Predict the 3D structure of the following.
Amino acid sequence: MSKRTIPFSRDDLKRIEAEHKTPFHIYDKAAILENAEKMNEAFSWVPGGFKNYFAVKALPNPYIIKLLKGLGMGADCSSLPELILAEKAGLKGEEIMFTSNDTPIEEYQYALKTGAVINLDDITHLDFLKEGAGLPELICFRYNPGPLKEGNAIIGSPEEAKYGFTREQLKEGYRKAASYGVKRFGLHTMVASNELDPDYFIETAVLLLDLVNEISSETGITFDFINLGGGVGIPYKPGDRAVDLDYVGKGIEKAYKEKLAGTPHEGKLRVKMECGRVITGPYGYLVTKAIHRKDTYKHYIGVDACMADLMRPGMYGAYHHITIPGKEDAPCDHTYDVAGSLCENNDKFAIDRKLPLIEEDDFVVIHDTGAHGHAMGFNYNGKLRHAELLMSEDRSVELIRRAETVEDYFATLDFSKL
Ligand SMILES: Cc1ncc(COP(=O)(O)O)c(C=O)c1O
C-alpha cells in the first residue's frame, strides 16, 4: 500500500461510529484552513487583494463556506440554492460570484438582489438580463478561447465546450454593456478541470492579461478584475504531484508585472480564482464499512456506501486511494473490486486494487472526497445520501449535515392521492 495517510485511527473511527453510523464523509478542518491560507499567501502580492471564490458546487455545505469566509474567501455559485447557501454562510454582495450557464431569469433576478458579481456565459444573456432583471453596475463575461487553449480530459476541448463567449463576442459584449450604462467590468475563463500542470494556470493568466490589454485598447473600457476560474487539480494517485501554488502565484505575478507595465491596469487589476477541489478535496474522506465478501470470477468487497456517495470512480473511472485503518502496515497481497450496492456494474470504488486482507466490519476509507464527492450524490435506486462530519484538531466531530431519512426521500410524494 502507498504511504498515503489518514488523519484518524481505527479507534477514532470506532468512537465516531458509536454516534454516527457509517457511511459518512468526514472533513479535516485544520487541514482545510492550513491549505486555504497557503493559497492566500501565494497570491498576497495581488494589488487590491486576491480572492478565491470557493466553488460551492464542490462542497455545498454552509459550515465549510463559513469556515473559508473566515480566511477572506468568497463563494462561486451556479444556481439559486447555491446563492442562498452562500448568504446563509454570511457572504454578501461582491463576496459572491454567480457563474451559471443556460440560466433561468429568476436566478439572475435573485443574484442581482444579493448584489453578487454576475458572470454571463453568453452575449445574448446581456439583453436577457437587462430585460428580465435589469443590469448591475459591474458585469463579468466568461471567455471561451476555443482553439487558442487546450482543455483537458474532464472538461474537454474549449471548442467543444458549451461555455463562454468567443473573443469577438467579448468585444461586442463589453461595448454594448458600456452603452447600456455598465460601469465596471470583469473577465473570466475556466478551461480545465483537475489540472495538475502548474504552468497551465500561468498560461491561462497570460491569455487573460493579453486579452485585457487588447479589449481595453480596442473598446476603451478598463477592467476591475480577471478571474482565472477553478480547476486546480489534486494528487488523487500516489504518484501524482500536488500543484505548487507558490510557483503558480509567482509565475502569475511575473506575467502581471510584464504585461500590465505602462497600461491603465498597472497595479490596479485585481486577480480572482474560483477553486473548489484544491481547497477541500484532499481533506475529505468517505468512511464506509465492509459488509460483504464475494468470490466469483473476481474477489469483491461489498461496502455500505455506494456510487450515490461518490460518483467520480463510476462516472470518470477516477482513482481514489483506499486505506484500511489498522492495517496500514499490512501487506497489500489481495486484489479486490470494492463495490457498492447500486444496480449498476460501474458502482465500484476500486477495480483490481491491491489491498490488505479485508474482513467484515473493517472500515474502508476512501480518500480525497472533500470536493465533488457528497455534492454529486443522487437518489437513484432509492439510495439515501449520508451525513457529513467536520473533524477538529482534537478529533472531536461536529455533524454538519445529517443523513437523509426514508421520509426525506418521500417528501415530494403525496401518497394520499393514490
Ligand atoms: C465555472 C466553474 N468554476 C469553478 C469550478 C470549480 O472547479 P474545481 O473544484 O475543480 O476547482 C467549476 C467546476 O466544475 C466550474 O464549472
